[in-house]
Model the fold of this input.
Amino acid sequence: MKTELEKICFISEKAYPVLTNSDGIVGGAELQVKYISNELGGQFDVYVITISHNGTQIIKKGNITIINIKRSKRAISLALLVQLFRIIYEINPTIIFHRPPSLLGIIISLIFKCHNTKYVPIISSNFFVERIFSASLFSDIIYAFYYIMLILSDGVICQTKHQFNLLPSHIKYKSTIIANIVSSKFQKDIAQNGCDILWMGKIVPYKNPLLIYSIAKRFPNLSFLILGGAPKKYLEYYNVFIHNISKEENITHINNYPHQFIFSQIKRTKLLISTSISEGFPNTFLESWYNGIPVISYKFDPDGLISRNELGVVCNTLEEICDYVEILLSDDDKYIEYSNNSHIYVNNHHSMREIYNKYTDLISSLI
Done:
């Protein structure tokens, strides 16, 4: 007699493009859901619920079942909620992982507690945590609701020690740190030509992409590739950015591309530059380090890993970034040292097996 597998559900509203290899803007949180859900699908009955304009559909892909709910014009509508709750009720999962968490989480955690379903949000950005615990009920009502969601949750997953340390003790006791995964399983080599400097991310203000434009102007003999599009609400900012970079012949911008294309480009680049003002733990760092590509990061160093392990450099000014671009592209010994450090670090701390084991340990503790 076949034993019924434990049912695990991931809710990742924007993950449809990366799960189905279709067009769309994909963030690191959604990519991580793809990695871990596929891996857990070998041991559990795994469902991933997404919300997009692609229409309501059920897709069996690899080890997981993808259930997409058609997005309405409003962010959260009554019809969407009814459909979401009906789907969760029919799946009847033991645990719901929510990445990145949204306001749906507070409703889910309230309704499904009576069904003994555990709710576990996965924190994706430092800003999310910082904002929650600096918000007052009247000044920022949305983040006050997020606070309630964390209180109602059965566990919280953080990406870094920094995020974990930001949590108050009454939430920290049920929280755990599980790092992001870097996976070679989904990497395909489909690019033709490489570049000297790579920048990847959404073209939004907190990613600070205009800084890469300033860097490119300093190095007209280096080739820069910018990969990323923008959500509709940032269309005006995006248009200003495109107008600026179009003036520089050494910048190539690609807006729409399959995610596999990123891995191909990383293999052919020399440096990754990150200009983000706020992050959690960027997938772009892991993907670069896996391929032995050092990172130059503007002010951001997750848990001090870049500096402590010499995986690249952390800079505080435009001048510093430009100085280190010259140093790393001219000093072969230093470049090789950082490159070797990067590959070793990722294999030791972000392998699929290590992260998989942490998830299965957490699941066992909650069942």
In short: The chain has a mean pLDDT of 87.
